[in-house]
Design a protein that fits this description.
Length: 112
């Protein structure tokens, strides 16, 4: 008898659990490390580089509806969002919020 739960079970078994195992392993192994240790600084640098690469790819080679937004608007949203991050107590939330607002406003003003 099937209750239509197979997709949810597959999502948990193939999507959630494999990544959750690595999170818990990271907590167990990294719990005793200093935040200024070489390995933590390296991991933080790699994570930052990966996020920067994903953002650059989204801005320069956008998928889907984002491709309809002019490049100048996308670049302005990144720049103004970064400026907001710096000016508002280095708040990532403020930077993302302001950048998103600029992107939406620019898309409405200059989009198709």
């Amino acid at each position: 008898m099937s209750f239509g739960m197979e997709p949810y079970l597959a999502l948990i078994l193939l999507g959630f659990l494999p990544s959750e195992i690595w999170r818990w392993l990271g907590i167990v192994l990294g719990g005793g490390l200093s935040e200024e240790s070489e390995i933590i600084l390296w991991v933080r640098a790699v994570a930052t580089a990966l996020v920067a690469a994903v953002v650059a790819r989204l801005v320069l080679i956008p998928p889907g509806a984002l491709a309809a937004v002019p490049l100048g608007v996308r670049l302005a949203a990144i720049g103004i969002g970064f400026l907001a991050f710096l000016l508002i107590r280095r708040s990532a939330f403020a930077g993302v919020l302001v950048g998103e607002a600029v992107l939406v406003a620019g898309a409405l003003a200059f989009g198709p």
